[in-house]
Amino acid sequence: MSEAASSYSLAELMVVAASRVFDNEGEVLATGIGLLPRLAASLAMKTTNPDLMMTDSQSFLLSEPNPVSGMKTHAGQANETWLGFRAVFDNVWSGKRHAMVGPSQIDRFGQANISALGGTYQQPKVQLLGVRGFPGNSISHGNSFFVPQHSTRVFVEGECDVVGSIGYNPDRLPKGYTFDDIDVRQVITDLCVMDFNGPNRQMRIVSLHPGVTEQEVREKTGFELAVVENLGTTPAPTQAQLDVIAELDPLNARSKQLKDNPPGDRR
Amino acid sequence: MNKLQSAKEAVAAIQSGMTIGIGGWGPRRKPMALVRELLRSDATDLTVIAYGGADVGMLCAAGKVKKVIFAFVSLDFMPLEPGFRQARQAGAIEVFEIDEGMMLQGLRAASWRIPFIPTNVGLGTDVVARNPELKIIDSPYDDKEWVAMPALNMDVSLIHATRCDERGVCEIASPDIYMDDLFARAAKHTIVSCDELVPTSHFADPQVARSVFWERAHTQSVVHIPGGAHPSSSDPLYGFDVKHFKAYGEAVGAGEFEAYLNNHVVGKSEEDYQAQVGGLDAIQALPLPAY
Question: Which of A56, A58, A130 comes nearest B72 by C-beta?
Answer without folding.
Answer: A130
